[in-house]
């Protein structure tokens, strides 16, 4: 077995200070904590709020379309849906056009909770946008979308 190459500590500092992936992950975690804290009194996490909001459509979406929108695989989406189903916030049904496919629907309880959660999200979101140093949230969103 060959001896591994040593990486200088200066390289560690360079990565710490310049790695876009690290900075985006740190920002995402900080934002998630902020929204989790704000939504906690309603019994929701930021991920659950996003999932419920993704179901707020005129027609029930498929698992695949929701997974794609939320950038998660179907297995992760299925796991995320389970507690929302148990709480009676979401219904998962077979698609009449294709019995292998599942459709996701907000229940009345889910819609009620979502309408209570939206003002909390809106206030928190406005606070976050005010904290952006450049004051241009549209630019940040556009830059982040360019990476997808």
Automatic annotation (TrEMBL):
Record flagged with keyword DNA-binding: yes
Pfam families: MarR (PF01047)
Domain HTH marR-type: 17-148
Organism listed in the record: Labrys wisconsinensis
GO molecular function terms noted in the UniProt entry: DNA binding
Keyword annotations: DNA-binding
Protein's UniProt name: DNA-binding MarR family transcriptional regulator
Keyword Transit peptide: no
């Amino acid at each position: 077995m060959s001896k591994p190459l040593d990486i200088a500590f200066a390289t560690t500092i360079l990565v710490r200070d310049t790695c876009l992936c690290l900075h985006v992950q740190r920002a995402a975690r900080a934002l998630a904590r902020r929204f989790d804290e704000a939504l906690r009194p309603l019994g929701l996490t930021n991920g659950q709020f996003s999932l419920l909001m993704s179901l707020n459509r005129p027609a029930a979406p498929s698992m695949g379309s929701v997974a794609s929108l939320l950038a998660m695989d179907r297995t992760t989406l299925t796991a995320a849906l389970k507690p929302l189903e148990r709480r009676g916030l979401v219904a998962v049904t077979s698609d009449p056009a294709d019995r292998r496919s599942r459709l996701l629907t907000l229940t009345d309880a889910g819609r009620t909770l979502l309408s209570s959660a939206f003002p909390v999200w809106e206030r928190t979101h406005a606070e976050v946008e005010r904290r952006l140093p450049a004051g241009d949230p549209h630019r940040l969103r556009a830059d982040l979308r360019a990476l997808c």
